[in-house]
Amino acid sequence: MSLESDNKTQTEAEKLLALRNKIDAIDEEIGRLISARATCAQEVAEVKKANLPDDAKILFYRPEREAQVLRKAMEQNKGPLSNEEMARLFREIMSACLALENPVKVAFFGLEGSFTHQAALKHFGGSASTISFSAIDEVFREVEAGAVNYGVVPVENSTEGVVSFTLDNFMDSNLKICGEVELRVHHNLLVSDVTSTNNISRIYAHPQALAQCRKWLTSHYPKAERVAVSDNATAAKRLKGEWNAAAIAGSMAAELYGLKILAEKIEDQPDNSTRFLIIGSQEVPPSGVDKTSIVVAMRNEPGALHNLLEPFHRHNIDLTRVETRPSRTGVWNYVFFIDFAGHANDPLISEVLQEVATRCADLKLLGSYPKAVL
User: Fold this and answer.
1) Residue 353's CATH number
2) Model pTM?
3) Per-residue 3-state assignment (H helix, E strand, C coil) for 311-360
4) Residue tagged active-site, from 274, 292, 336, 340
5) Chain centre distance of CA 188
6) Bridge-partner residues for 205, per DSSP?
7) Is the same domain home to 161 and 228?
8) Where does the Chorismate mutase domain lie (predicted)?
């Protein structure tokens, strides 16, 4: 080896050593700052406890405050990490700090590894205590009973539309919507370690997942039986010991249940996403960028829907969703679930809601909450 080559290798080694030393110093500073933030969070908890009666319920988790912190982190991000990745890191820091005050208990629909479980972790972070339930109404009951702080339920999919069970539960519940999560849904075909991949004759999945992957399944497994189950995590869990079966589920389910991903991103629509709602008992103050959800019962008369929506149009309020469901109080009567931009405490929104209330048989405010940050 020449002297020039030796010098070049030495120079590269010196540069790498200098960079690693710099990283070590930065890591030390990051650790110090995270500890300082956690200590500050503990002090916040003590202040809250000291200024409330002993029997008062302390709200450690503040959805509007977390949304503001995440938005600020994204606004101040200079790269090279993406805004989404920066927000995810801040979410985990806040989750860990909140766990020092009081770990949040969260109920979610489906088994561990389901997309709803993934949405719960995305919103509350990995330090939250998550509990699975097999039915959406069970999630509502747990939150109403106070057994958990919040619940996470699916409400609509960009491909298959609304989740009617969730909307129906709001009609009988006094719970509030405290937040929302938007999750990009990627479906994978999973197999177990005993699967004969050339002889797959049965594919398990949630009915919506089967619908969202219809074209891919028809193209690749036209003769395989498609078996609908309660959720995709259940589909993944059933594979153990079935040599001729596969399942459609996310990567989290594959990791949890020790499965192999045979084919990735098999959904027919590449922008397939699902929206989830965070349900709780508290009313959420404005965060600065909010949405409001209401359910309205209309009198059965001509032009009812036009009369209902006209105030929103006149005041230039952005409607993000209008969904119709049959009323339980009369044949051929309907209720409308409406989402729109803004907070119920905003003077303009308050004025519109008062006007809408005069035009309908009944209006129920489901909640105002921060718009999904990412």
Assistant:
1) 3.30.70.260
2) 0.89
3) HHHHCCCCEEEEEEEECCCCCCCEEEEEEEECCCCCHHHHHHHHHHHHHC
4) 274
5) 19
6) 228
7) no
8) 10-105
Its domain, for residue 177, covers 103-184+276-282
39 flagged as catalytic: no
Task: Give the DSSP H/E element, type plus range, for residue 38.
Answer: helix 3-50
Q: pLDDT (tens digit, 9 = 90+) per residue, 183-237?
A: 998 999 999 999 999 999 999 999 989 999 999 999 999 999 999 998 889 999 9
Which pLDDT tens digit goes with each residue over 262-317?
999 999 988 889 999 999 999 999 999 999 999 999 877 788 889 999 999 999 99
Give the C-alpha separation, 115 to 302, whole Å: 41
Q: Using alpha carbons, select from 369, 367, 288, 300 the residue that is nearest to residue 335.
A: 300
Asked if 157 and 123 sit in the same domain, the reply is: yes
Q: Which residue has the tokens 């999919």?
A: 157
For the question of residue 276 being annotated catalytic, the response is yes
Q: How many domains does the chain have?
A: 4
Catalytic residue (one of 109, 115, 276, 312): 276
